[in-house]
Design goal:
alpha+beta, three-stranded antiparallel beta sheet, 20% helix, five-stranded mixed beta sheet, OB fold (Dihydrolipoamide Acetyltransferase, E2P), elongated, single chain
Length: 135
């Protein structure tokens, strides 16, 4: 995995910030977020990059077994009270098991989103200053 910037005072769910072609991308540890046993970050740790309307977010995951494309018709709705912050927006049955579809917009509470934006802004400024320095 690429090197991550780890500024002091980061929120606990933030693994660090990734420099992705000059863009500071917050990396969230899903294991830590869901209070699962932690695994060490290693060279081949997997990141899933999510593209929002105006931002990027990376999720540090244990592994990626496959990437699926599903049609909207196969999605089964999940009632809001069955997931924290209504972050599970649907379920889909695949190969005899149920896969939960998370909503990137509702994965973090507002306070976490605000905190990540602040850290991302500081890191983006740092990257721009480094780019502007003569070599």
């Amino acid at each position: 995995m690429s090197w991550l910037s780890r500024p002091p005072g980061m929120p606990s769910i933030l693994e660090g910030l990734l420099n992705l072609r000059g863009t500071a991308v917050p990396v969230i540890s899903l294991g830590r977020m869901f209070r699962l046993p932690e695994k060490p970050v290693e060279l081949y740790s997997s990141l899933v990059i999510l593209r929002g309307h105006d931002h990027l977010l990376a999720l540090l995951v244990d592994h990626v077994s496959q990437v699926l494309s599903v049609s909207v018709e196969t999605l089964m709705p999940v009632r809001g009270e069955h997931s924290f912050n209504n972050c599970t927006q649907a379920e889909v049955a695949m190969a005899g098991r149920v896969v939960h579809v998370l909503s990137p917009e509702r994965l973090l509470i507002e306070k976490e989103q605000q905190c990540l934006r602040e850290f991302q802004g500081i890191e983006q400024q740092r990257l721009q200053e480094l780019e502007a320095q003569p070599t």
